[in-house]
Amino acid sequence: MPTPKIFACKQSQSLAKDIAKSYGLPLGNIITSTYSDGEFQPSFEESVRGCRVFLIGSTHPSSDNLMELLLMCDAAKRASARHITAVIPYFGWARQDRKDKPRVPIAAKLIAKMLETAGATRIITMDLHADQIQGFFEKPVDHLYASTIFLPYLKSLKLDNLTIASPDMGGSKRAYAYSKALSSDVVICYKQREKANIISHMELIGDVKGKNVVLVDDMVDTAGTLTKAADLMIERGALSVRAICTHPIMSGSAFERLENSKLQELIVTDSIPLGQESPKLKVLTCATLFADVMTSVHENESISSKFLM
Description:
With 309 residues, the protein is α/β, with parallel strands linked by helices. It has helices at 13-23, 63-78, 107-118, 147-157, 172-182, 224-235, 254-260, 287-298; strands at 5-8, 30-34, 40-44, 52-56, 83-88, 122-126, 141-144, 162-166, 185-195, 198-205, 212-220, 240-248, 265-269, 281-284. It folds into two domains: 5-145 and 288-307, Rossmann fold (3-Layer(aba) Sandwich); 147-285, 3-Layer(aba) Sandwich (Rossmann fold).
């Protein structure tokens, strides 16, 4: 079985280096040429013929990040790679997974088709915004759960009167899975949006008085929902509020909101590179998780343990 080769998109260089180190291989050599108008062209500077190629890159905006991954898939296909596995720690555009009003796209489906057309023969990703996105692909999708990273950290905190919370109704399944693993209670936040990223009203379903609360979500964008939920819970008598969010998008005023909120700690992974730091931010690496799964995929071993909450 030929040794696999690992390549990184520009936006995920740091994480890819850690994944490659954990895997036990160096990153492959790739050069990106850029034209004066912004058009770019990635080039593999070593042979990939007959190899399994792992291409690591999160697809958060700007769209250049997605385009780079697509171009690398196409280049590997045309260079006769045997398998092309797109390793996407954060699968961007996933919030557009259905038509929630007339005349809008289903971007997640479109991107799935684009990746397959570009040449990806397998997808490895983590904590999709909606589980059903796996069904948008005709190729195998290994959907990993960051709970394998977060749960050991939560247990190490040894919090008394622990309660898991979901910041919205859509995340209740995830919250219940964490509560089952930690033998804790669950509370749910009910929110109404005025428009995207703007919350008009929020209510709490459940009791948090005297509890140490951990909010669980798949991503944190503007941090509006999380910080509003944390402030509400402290008002309702919670002893402390932490949050676990797999993908730290942290756009707009997110860092400012985090600093001014009642959140004691925001725990995230390094699936997306962070633009700045905060004393309230705790980053746990997902490099070992991806390296272990990539090894199992290459050696045709089971990875079902990585799917469990």
